[in-house]
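Batch manifest line 325
LIGAND: aspartic acid
JOB: complex structure
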Amino acid sequence: MKTLVRSLAATAAFVLVLPGAHAQTYPSKPVSLSVPFAAGGPTDTVARALAVSMSKALGGTIVVENVPGAGGTIAPTKLKAAAPDGHSLMLAHIGMSTAPGLYRALPFKPLEDFEYIGQVVDVPMTFIAKKDLPPNDFKGFVDYVKANKDKVSMANAGLGSASHLCGLLFMSTVQADLTTVPYKGTAPAINDLLGGQVDVLCDQTTNTTSHIKSGRIKAYAVTSKARVPSLPDLPPAADAGLPGFEVNVWHGVYAPKGTPKPVLDKLVAALQVAIADPAFIQRMADLGSVVVSKDKATPDGLKNHLRAEIDKWTPIIKKAGVYAD
Ligand code: ASP
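JOB STATUS: finished
ARTIFACT:
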């Protein structure tokens, strides 16, 4: 009996000291930062730049892992089941707030199943098309799409992706039900756009900027309220024919529920260093994006924004009547 009591006491002591001891040695192996979309795409681009800056601050390696599929819902489903020890993280975008409206049976609860490290960066989107699409400005683009709605195809990264959301808003605004073509991310989507296999796409500047600058695709407008400094020739869609049209793709870092507080504190501190890193800020600015302020790169900053965005998008999506099972 004594032995049993002693060994129970030892176990309890071990459990009690584990989080603290763990935080001192954390990270004890490479940290995985999962991305819900394909390699080479916009979310992946943000993740890889962030991983470099956060790794330095954390004193360990952060490895980006692409977990694409099902409109970006597979990565959070896997994160929910991962060990809550700080070695599994995820960078996800606005899709975390559109998924509850879009999926009847979502395998995770965005506001309950995770720990929230903080927001990272806001990224506008761009309306782009294959090079030989006839229109040369946004008004012409909208007229062309309306007149040719039976033959224009629009790519996206699956139900719940930012490109899907932007396409959904665009199609309902211009009242044109286009043929949509889903991919595992907008990196493969843009490859097909470059090859002329698909006609149009709305995608983040983090993916489209270099292609726009090279002149290999056509670009018509940005989805932000104001012009984007790195793409000064593109008008906001709201000023060029679609009043009120706005999509801002925000990003956040998540950890599995139950990750020890001292480990979360280390991660939040590393994120704070990353968002102040001039190299990260410059890389994001070159790609048309804006790194968030310090108060947003916090657990409350992310969770409150996620809640507000779920409240904003769910009724819009329900009204549009789009669902995935
Ligand atoms: N961000 C893209 C989207 O949601 C997907 C990707 O990152 O490849 O459309």
